[in-house]
Amino acid sequence: MESPSMTLRTASLLLALVFSAGALAAQPGNAAAGKKLYQATQDSKGQAKPACGSCHGANANTPMAGMPKLASQYPDYLQKALKEYRSGKRKNPIMAAQAQGLSDTDIANLSAYLASVKGDVHDLSGHAD
After folding, report:
1. CA atoms of 82 and 101, how far apart (whole Å)
2. What span, in angstroms and rounded, lies between the C-alpha atoms of 60 and 114?
3. Of 41, 38, 48, which Cα lies nearest the Cα of 107?
C-alpha cells in the first residue's frame, strides 16, 4: 500500500501534467510570417498552392459563401483545426489538401497572423439565454 506522501506526490504530478498539457497545445507563432504564408501562392518548397484568401477572403473577414471567417479566431483553435485537417481527423478534401504541406511552424504562424487580424469573431457573453 502506498504511503500518504507517495499518494500526494503522485496526485501532484498528475495534476501538473494535466494543467501543462493545455500550455503545450498551442505553439507560439510569428504573425508576419503567417501573413506571408496566408497570401502566398507557393509553399516554402516552391510548390504551387492556392492562397488562403481565395476562399477565406483577402483579410480573412469576407469569405466566399459557406466559408468560415478566420480573422480574430483563437490561435489554439486554429492550430488544432489545421492539424486535424492535416491528419485527416477533420474531413474536408479542400482543407486537407491545403493543410497537408504545412509544418507545425507554418500552422503556428498562420494561426498567429489570423488571430491578429481585426474581425468580428466573438464569444457568447452578453447574449440572452
Report:
1. 11
2. 7
3. 38
Helix (H, G, I), strand (E, B) or coil at 104: helix
E-strand ranges in 1-126 read none
Amino acid letter for position 60: A
Residue 64: φ, ψ to 5°: -65, 160
- HSE-CB of 50 using CA atoms within 13 angstroms: 12
Task: Look at residue 92 in the predicted model and tell me its pLDDT.
Answer: 95
| Reported pTM | 0.70
**Mean pLDDT per segment of 10 residues, for the chain of length 129 residues?**
58 51 68 91 66 88 86 95 97 93 95 93 68
How many H helices and E strands in the chain?
6, 0
Q: Whole-angstrom Cα distance, residue 60 to residue 112?
A: 13
H or E element at residue 120: none
Does residue 35 contact residue 106 with C-beta atoms inside 8 Å?
no
